[in-house]
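Methods, example record. To illustrate the input and output format used throughout this study, we show the complete record for Flavocytochrome subuit of an oxidoreductase. The sequence lines were provided to the predictor; the line carrying structure tokens was produced by it.
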Amino acid sequence: MINQSSDMKILLGSLLAMVSVAWGMGVSATGGSSGGSLPWVIRQEAHYISGLLSLALMSLAMYLSTRPVWLETPLGGMDRVYRTHKWAGILGVSFAVVHWLVEEVVGDILKAMVGREGRIPKEKFTGFLEVMRDLAKDMGEWTFYFVLAMLVITLWKRFPYKPWRVLHQAMPVLYLMLALHAAMLAPTDYWTQPVGILIALFGAAGIYGALYSLAGCIGRSRRASGTVAAIEQPAPDVLTVSCQLDNNWRGHRPGQFAFITFDDKEGAHPFTIASADRGDRSISFQIKVLGDYTRTLSKRLEVGHAVKVEGPYGRFDMARQDSSARQIWIAGGIGVTPFLAWLDSLQQAPNQVSADLHYCTRDRTNDPFVARIEAGCATLPGIRLHIYGAQQGETLSAADVAAAQNGSRRSEIWFCGPQGLAEKLKHELGCIGQGRFSFHQEAFEMR
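The corresponding predicted structure is encoded as:
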């Protein structure tokens, strides 16, 4: 069986459980919404709990957008922090949909079925507070429609990245509108209960994230400037960019990634660092053509071009390997990049690691990385290289991976490549492994 990281599920599940328990304590303490018939009471409490869950998840997503480095260790890297950010946002909008449906659709159904009698009496407010509550209600509705549209285009992968990024920059403002909506429309008695404390805590975390983002502070302390030192194009769809950075660069561990800005209008894009840290503040990236931005990059870059690099981030790090376990490294396509940095760093200590490196490529004959990998492994006696070319009829199977165990009781698999290949191997190895394999994979998807 393969041991997969469940930190994200634990975090999200714990948050949902915490909010649900606090809401339940409030219902138990006050008897729930009073003054109405049972159908209307159930509808009202469903409205409250869905709103609370949406607020908690959206607050978490907003806080995680600040790239909190302290969460890299518990969550397994900044790539997983962003994956958690993504799913917190998706779930938050999903609960917002439920919140809206309960308010609008279920309300209309109950009016038709049981009539208006038995509806929960509304709390009465006057003056400025009444005006603010009306405004907060309108803001909540406007925010709902916008974030629902954002969810649709986020899941629609064909929607161009650049306009999505521009629209996504509005999220901090929308969150502040959501926070006002929640604070103003929460029942008054919530503020004397645990659920009120949670609303305040989640709201504070989310507001911090929103203001931090609006102030342009995200990643500022980990940002370095520099210039493009060299450009190569080893293949039509691959660009090698080497950069020389200033004294703000704090160095990196092999396997980490950074956010690179070549053009302020385009914004930052994440790329894995493909070179070892030699203490001279020089780094290189292997950039594969995957979209409109990377397709035109070779025409827009030249030596001396100014760059901004933010990082490093990530936990795809040899230092985290279990020395008592057999090491199996699997790279697919451009997923070879972190392993290039690993091989580069091992040149200083060639006998330090023993591992099997499996590299899957479309065409091993014309692949620009094959020669570099072979040269890197040639001086490392502990690394056994296996290359699979799809056009040559060679494919990596779970049996190939299991054979690399070579009698070892436990193995660590470090994988970077297409998600389809990862799922295939994890499924097959789960049938073979019987607890012998642990699987480490970068969740390198920022949208």
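Annotations derived from this record:
Residues 59 and 204 are 8 Å apart (CA to CA).
The first strand starts at residue 2 and ends at 3.
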